[in-house]
Here is the input.
Amino acid sequence: MSYSILVVDDSWESREVITSILSINEDYSLAMAENGEEAMGKLQTNNFDLVVTDISMPVMDGLELLDHLVKNKPSLPVITFTGFGDIFGVKALERGAEDCIFKPFDARDFKLRIAKALKYSRLKKYQDLLEQKNKELRQISTMDQLTQLYNRHYMQDVLQREFTRAKRYRNKLSCVMIDIDHFKKINDEYGHMQGDSVLREFAGLLKNTCREVDVPCRFGGEEFLIILPETDRRGAECMADRLRRATETMPIFRVESAELLTELKISVSVGLSAYPDPRIRSEMDMITLADEALYLAKNQGRNCVMVA
Here is the structure.
C-alpha cells in the first residue's frame, strides 16, 4: 500500500535529511513545500495521508498550517518538528498535532513515528468510510427513495416514541393524514412517471410547510402522514388547511413537447387526530382516527380537512 506524505520545511538541508530517511521505504511517495502557504496550494490539488511540517518557517509557519488543517481536514494527521525546544512541541500537540519530533532527527525514531501516524491515518480513513456507509444505510432504511420523506417504518417508530412522551408528560400531539385526490386518474391519463413527479413535487411542498420538529412521512402510495409534536387539535387543523390551500395553487408542469408545457392542478383531502382524546389509548389509535377522518373528507367531496 502506497502512502503520500507532504513534507513542509523552508530548509533545503532538512528536506534532504527527511527524504534520505523516508525514501528507503518504497511505499512512501514524498512531496515538498517550503512554507505553509505553498503547502496549502498542494493540499488543494492532492490527497495526502500525512503532513510533516517544521514549526518555524517564513510566510506561514507550521502552527498556522496546523490550525488550518485541524479545522478543514481534521482526519489528516500532522506531525510537527522543531529545533527550538519543548515549548513549541507542547504548543503543537495542544493545537492538534499527532506528534512532535525534535531536531536533530534520529532516523530510526523518525521512521517509527511516521509509520505510527500513517497507521492512524489508514484506520481513520477506514473509520470515516464505515461511518459514511452506515449513514447511507440508515438513510436507506428510514427514507422513502422516491419522495425523500421518512418511510412508514420510521414513522411508526417516531409516533410510538412521541406518543409515549406525550402520555408521560401530558403533552399535546397531533397526527395528520393526507391523500392526493384522484391520483389514480393522473397515473391513468399521464402515466406513472408523471405520477411520480406529482408525488415528488407534493413531498417538497410538504417539507416546506412543516416545522423542524414535525415529521413528514410517506404512508404509502399517494397517502402521507405528518406527526406534529406539541400541537393541539386547533393548531393541527390550521396547519392542515394551510397545506391544503398551498396544494391548490402549487404549479406542476407536464412536458407535452419541446415547446409546450401543460400545468396540472391537484388537491388533497386531509384527516387528523389529536391527543389527548379519550378514544386514543395508543399511537395506533391516532392513525386509525386520522384515517377515519380522511375517509370522511373524501366523502364530503374531497379537497377539505376533517377532524376526528
